[in-house]
C-alpha cells in the first residue's frame, strides 16, 4: 500500500487546536497524549497550536482598502454557514454585505465590489468555513 497524507482545512485545524486548549484548561492534557487520541502527529498538532485566530492572512500586492470589512465579512459568512443554517453564500450576497459595511463604517457610497473580487473572497471564506469541508 502507498503512503497517504491527510489534508485538513484551516477551520478543521483551528477546531482541533481549540479542542486541545479547552481540554488542557480542564485537565492538563499533554500535546502528545491529545495527538495520539485524535490520531494526528505530535509535530503537526504543535504547528496547528501556534496558528493565530481570526481570518486567515491574505497575501496581496497592495494592502486592503478596508481591512475591517474583510474581518466582518469573514464572521458574517461563518454565521450564515453555521449548523442548521443556509450553506450557500452567493457573490451577490457578498457584494451587498461588503457595500453595506463600507457605507456604514466609512461613508464611501461609491464602493463597488467586482465579480472577480467576490469570487476571490468567496473562495477564501469557503475554504476557512468551520462547518463545511473545502471542496
Automatic annotation (TrEMBL):
Domain of life: Eukaryota
Protein name in the entry: Uncharacterized protein
Species lineage: Eukaryota, Metazoa, Ecdysozoa, Tardigrada, Eutardigrada
